[in-house]
Amino acid sequence: MADDRESLICCVCLDFFKNPAIIPCGHMFCKECITGLWDKDVCRCPQCKHTFPNRPVITDWLQMKDLSEKLMKMRPKEEDEEDAEAHEVSCDSCTSRRTKAVQSCLTCVSSFCRNHLEKHNDLHGWRKHLLTEVTDLQSKTCSLHGKLLDVFCRTDQKCVCVLCAIHEHKEHDSVSASEERADRQGKLMETREKFQQNVRDREKDLKELKQAEESITCSAQTAVSESERIFSEVLSSVQKTSVRVKELITERQRDELSRIEGLQEKVQLKISDLRMKESELGQLLTTEDHIHFLQNYPKYISEKSEDLSNISKNPKAYFSNVELLLSKMQERLLEVTKETEIKIRSGGAVPPKADGPVSTHSI
């Protein structure tokens, strides 16, 4: 029974005969398979390789058609369900079943499963057909002429087929897709170098931010320590001012550290984004698919870098004015205290309260 089933399988589509027909050399194929093959190539028998000088007459075999249809109805449901599973790109030669394609032929403008790929290589092995990784040929085929898109029109900035270049784009500036890809690849490599430089710049910015964080923390600690030393020398009446000064320093420290942390997060996100895009560019630069390359080219070439070079001019100076202000405040307090003591000893009036307590809002 297995041998009988094999005798009812077309050697082109590798499936049961559909509209079986016999050619003059005596071999039998699906009518659509053999006519489609002859439409693309010379009239040759796929089995015995006999070449016909003129296109021969094909004879229908109705009896074999009935038998083949019965066998197709007897096919197990599991086999049909497995073959009907949706794939990204299906074999163009499998007519009754959808089978995953493993390679595409840019010469035939068709994709083939493993079995039909072997048959294709047997039929066209003596020719130089351009095979590539499996791809959706429909998106790379001219909708007007059905030809492969292999020309790039610089005037209209689009991919066209050779017939479009001859007719519809006759007066336009057109080059081969490979030439345009080579030109744009050079530009894209420059863009990639910019991405890499941006990564290096952002890493440098991150290093500066970490240094600024350490400087701010150290400066804040020094300012707090100095404020404690100064306020330990003044009267108890200025304790509230001392507490307020420490609060202001802490608030300033918190604000500055919060700003630095925000910038660090922003730079880290930017580095991750740049690395991801640089990786995508690496894959794009190595693909053999010119059309995929050209279609994805614009979204990378227009990338703009963000300048974060002026992150912090002098982080060490954030709290350098605290000691100076506190020293002046101490001098003023001592002057007021000495003046008040002298006036009390001499019986003079107490200094007016116009000056009031020293304000710390300027810190």
UniProtKB/TrEMBL annotation:
RING-type domain ranges (all copies): 10-49
Xref: InterPro entries: E3_ubiq-ligase_TRIM/RNF, TRIM8/14/16/25/29/45/65_CC, Znf_B-box, Znf_RING, Znf_RING/FYVE/PHD, Znf_RING_CS
A molecular function GO annotation: zinc ion binding
Keyword GTP-binding appears in the UniProt entry: no
Domain B box-type residue range list: 137-177
Alphabetized SMART domains for the sequence: BBOX, RING
Keywords, alphabetical: Ligase, Metal-binding, Zinc, Zinc-finger
Segments passing through the bilayer: none
Name of this chain's protein: E3 ubiquitin/ISG15 ligase TRIM25
Natural source organism: Carassius auratus
Name of encoding gene: LOC113108186
